[in-house]
Design goal:
This protein is mostly helical. The chain has a domain at 9-86. It has 7 helices and 2 strands, in the order H-H-E-E-H-H-H-H-H. The protein has helices spanning 9-21, 27-30, 51-60, 64-83, 89-93, 101-129, 140-151, and strands at 31-37, 43-49. Strands 1-2 form a two-stranded antiparallel sheet. Helix 1 packs across helix 3. It is elongated, with a radius of gyration of 26 Å.
Length: 161
């Protein structure tokens, strides 16, 4: 972490102690101890930290690299909160390192199929509540189009009038 945030090990340790002391995170949930063998053949107990702790330290550090981390995290979290998803375009384009494109397509198909089920339920509800339902009527199509467009917007969008 000291290398990541371009600061000293002592500074990282200070932040970690404060995070635990303030109860922000519990050491039992974010630290795992492993035995590693060094080049000299001796075995050492090594701490491995979960991402939760790395993020907490990143939000506390005041180094230039910590500032860069907070700007990156703020921009990405804001995009996630607004859109409900976040894509790493560069990683998706780089199929040689890891190809996540097929997984992304599978997840999109899954989402689209659940939308299809939602619209089918909506049509069934409309049909059950209307004695003169005609799904092919010129008035039914704009209604379903309006509902579909509204559902694709933000959850905070007002209902169509």
């Amino acid at each position: 972490m000291a290398d990541l945030f371009e600061t000293t090990k002592q500074n990282i340790s200070l932040h970690i102690r404060k995070i635990f002391a303030e109860g922000e995170l519990s050491e039992e949930t974010v630290v795992k101890f492993y035995l590693t063998t060094a080049a000299d053949g001796k075995r050492y107990k090594t701490r491995i930290y979960r991402l939760d702790l790395v993020l907490a330290v990143g939000f506390r550090g005041r180094s230039p690299r910590g500032n860069q981390f907070r700007r990156w995290a703020g921009a990405n979290l804001a995009e996630y909160l607004v859109k409900g998803f976040l894509l790493n375009d560069q990683r998706l384009k780089d199929a040689e390192r890891a190809d996540y494109f097929d997984e992304l397509l599978r997840r999109i198909r899954d989402i689209r199929s659940s939308e299809k089920r939602f619209y089918q339920k909506l049509r069934d509800l409309f049909k059950d509540s209307s004695s003169d339902y005609d799904g092919s009527a010129h008035t039914a199509k704009p209604l379903f189009a309006t509902i579909q467009n509204w559902c694709m917007r933000s959850p905070a969008a007002p209902l169509p009038s």
